[in-house]
């Protein structure tokens, strides 16, 4: 039963949308949508020769086939992967009540890397090989490795009842699986280059099927996480307050953990390890406005899509016809943003 005290406590929470913030929320939502569309259109004109006008390519059937078959699914896939990482980052930070939490905190990144290394030993191919069977096998191996890592984390933490235990278990599982993956790579030097490509991340081999999978999974995870956002709002007020609101924390925590695993695992399986997007997107939203977790999740998804789309365009554009790994670009941009955020916070504390 919700009491007047609980309602008042919620209204005083910094994570709640008050009426005066609704206009700001709508403006930010529309801005991110417009920016997403603009970046997708811009991405269609960026290729191995740098930027080309879509109007000049419109009359060339070969150029438009390249746009439709390669650039459009890649650009949409980059946005979808960023949205998945932004969503999972917002859920992870709310679940662990830690602004430094990211989608890979439960060990999914290390599990995916180990899965890819194991599959490479079996297939003897590249993580982004053009052969359909090999590509699907490696994608499935990355996803299964990420899910297995989360399962081991839950097993070691004995469920989701204790957030701190779950957090520590994720760190332990991540370190152990990363060590095993490094050992496999060391024993098979022929897969080092392929593993490096996976670790640095790439959107260059995202096709229509991969794009469709990420958009479908992202839509499902978004709907479920928004429906469960009241749990994150309750946890932001404290464990005891959340329980007093009558929320089934254990079941809902498990559902939120599965959302983190599914969204992060899907993105990693399709694009490799791309860092800082899931960590920076929620921070970027919170720096603009305070909102409930439902609003934060939606805005973080859009912000993540914008961040990775921009990074993907820069990775193709900066040194064309060569291409930078998109994970390197996101690390530089995300690291610079978080350093700026830390400097700003330190200056405010000094006042």
By CATH, the topology is ABC transporter involved in vitamin B12 uptake, BtuC
Name the helicity range: over 70%
CATH architecture: Orthogonal Bundle
* Tally of helical segments: 15
Describe the structure.
- The protein has 351 residues and is an all-alpha fold.
- α2 runs parallel beside α14, α4 (61-96) runs antiparallel to α12 (249-271) and α13 (277-288) packs across α15.
- It has helices at residues 4-12, 19-44, 54-57, 61-96, 108-123, 132-157, 163-187, 192-200, 208-227, 229-236, 239-244, 249-271, 277-288, 293-317, 326-350; strands spanning 46-47, 50-51.
- The chain is 77% helix and 1% strand.
- It has a single domain (69-350), classed as ABC transporter involved in vitamin B12 uptake, BtuC (Orthogonal Bundle).
- Keywords: Cell membrane, Membrane, Transmembrane, Transmembrane helix, Transport.
Labels describing this entry:
351 residues, mainly alpha, ABC transporter involved in vitamin B12 uptake, BtuC, two-stranded antiparallel ribbon, 15 helices, 2 strands, transport
What is the secondary structure topology, with strand pairs?
Layout: H1 4-12, H2 19-44, E1 46-47, E2 50-51, H3 54-57, H4 61-96, H5 108-123, H6 132-157, H7 163-187, H8 192-200, H9 208-227, H10 229-236, H11 239-244, H12 249-271, H13 277-288, H14 293-317, H15 326-350
Antiparallel strand pairs: 1-2
Helix pairs in contact: 2-4, 2-14, 4-9, 4-12, 4-13, 4-14, 5-6, 5-7, 5-8, 6-7, 6-12, 9-12, 9-14, 13-14, 13-15, 14-15
Q: Brief description of this entry?
A:
Its main location: membrane. The protein is mostly helical.
């Amino acid at each position: 039963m919700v009491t007047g005290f609980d309602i008042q406590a919620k209204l005083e929470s910094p994570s709640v949308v008050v009426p005066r913030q609704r206009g700001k929320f709508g403006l930010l939502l529309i801005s991110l949508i417009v920016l997403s569309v603009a970046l997708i259109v811009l991405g269609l004109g960026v290729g191995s020769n740098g930027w080309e006008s879509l109007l000049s390519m419109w009359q060339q059937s070969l150029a438009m086939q390249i746009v439709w078959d390669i650039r459009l699914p890649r650009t949409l896939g980059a946005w979808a992967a960023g949205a998945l990482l932004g969503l999972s980052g917002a859920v992870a930070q709310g679940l662990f009540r830690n602004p430094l939490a990211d989608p890979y905190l439960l060990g999914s990144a290390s599990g995916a890397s180990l899965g890819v290394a194991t599959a490479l030993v079996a297939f003897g191919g590249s993580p982004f090989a053009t052969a359909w069977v090999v590509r699907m096998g490696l994608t499935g191996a990355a996803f299964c490795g990420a899910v297995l890592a989360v399962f081991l984390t839950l097993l070691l933490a004995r469920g989701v009842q204790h957030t701190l235990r779950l957090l520590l278990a994720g760190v332990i599982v991540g370190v152990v699986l990363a060590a095993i993956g490094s050992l496999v790579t060391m024993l098979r030097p022929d897969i080092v280059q392929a593993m490096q490509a996976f670790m640095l991340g790439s959107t260059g081999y995202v096709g229509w099927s991969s794009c469709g999978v990420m958009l479908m999974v992202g839509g499902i995870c978004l709907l479920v996480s928004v429906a469960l956002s009241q749990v994150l709002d309750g946890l932001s007020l404290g464990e005891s307050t959340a329980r007093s609101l009558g929320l089934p924390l254990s079941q809902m925590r498990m559902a939120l953990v599965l959302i983190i695993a599914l969204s992060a695992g899907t993105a990693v399986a399709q694009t490799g390890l791309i860092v800082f997007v899931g960590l920076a997107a929620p921070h970027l939203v919170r720096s603009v406005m305070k909102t409930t977790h439902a609003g934060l999740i939606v805005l973080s998804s859009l912000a993540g899509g914008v961040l990775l789309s921009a990074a993907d365009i820069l990775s193709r554009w900066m040194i064309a016809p060569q291409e930078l790994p998109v994970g390197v670009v996101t690390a530089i941009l995300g690291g610079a943003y978080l350093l700026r955020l830390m400097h700003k916070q330190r200056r405010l504390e000094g006042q």
